[in-house]
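Summary of Year 1 activities. Much of the first year was spent building the evaluation harness for sequence design. The harness presents a backbone, in tokenized form, and records the residue chosen at every position. We chose the following record to illustrate the format because it has been used consistently in internal testing since the harness was completed.
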């Protein structure tokens, strides 16, 4: 199991988060961050700022709610794993789940994505839901599960592919 998944499982267990959809803001606040929402340019998903003993996660509130949830969970990953980073600006290109053709190559981005996916769509729950679902194609499975986990279709597809449940959509 990769570091990101292990850390996300630890956070879910520590905070007793089991009910879907998982609220990443609860995790952020418990880790000591304030979460603010403000309009921003479409390429900016969010930011993490640590200064003077305070931590703020800012989200672009012009993004759709499911996209904001993923951005927040991704930034929680950075908050928890990459404590040496005082400022981080996240753009669509940096974590790339909006475009499966360009998966992140940066180790920190990959770890943050893994935290986000395990927080929002825990492996055991996804496997159980996929096993119980009535579907004929991978695209149907993505469409069935994305709303259940309150994820975008590309994020759900990435999760299912990452777990080896589907090969592509």
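For this record, the design step produced the sequence shown next.
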């Amino acid at each position: 199991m990769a570091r990101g998944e292990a850390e996300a499982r630890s956070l879910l267990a520590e905070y007793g988060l089991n009910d879907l959809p998982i609220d990443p803001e609860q995790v952020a606040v418990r880790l000591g961050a304030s979460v603010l929402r403000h309009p921003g340019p479409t390429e900016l998903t969010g930011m993490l700022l640590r200064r003077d003993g305070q931590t703020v996660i800012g989200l672009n509130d012009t993004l759709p709610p499911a996209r904001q949830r993923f951005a927040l969970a991704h930034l929680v990953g950075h908050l928890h794993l990459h404590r040496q980073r005082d400022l981080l600006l996240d753009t669509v290109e940096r974590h790339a789940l909006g475009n499966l053709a360009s998966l992140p190559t940066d180790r920190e981005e990959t770890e943050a994505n893994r935290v986000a996916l395990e927080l929002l769509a825990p492996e055991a729950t996804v496997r159980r839901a996929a096993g119980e679902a009535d579907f004929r194609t991978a695209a149907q499975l993505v469409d069935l599960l994305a709303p259940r986990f309150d994820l975008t279709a590309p994020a759900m597809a990435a999760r299912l592919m990452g777990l080896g449940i589907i090969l592509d959509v």
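The CA atoms of residues 52 and 68 lie 26 Å apart. Quantitative recovery figures across the full test set are reported in Table 2.
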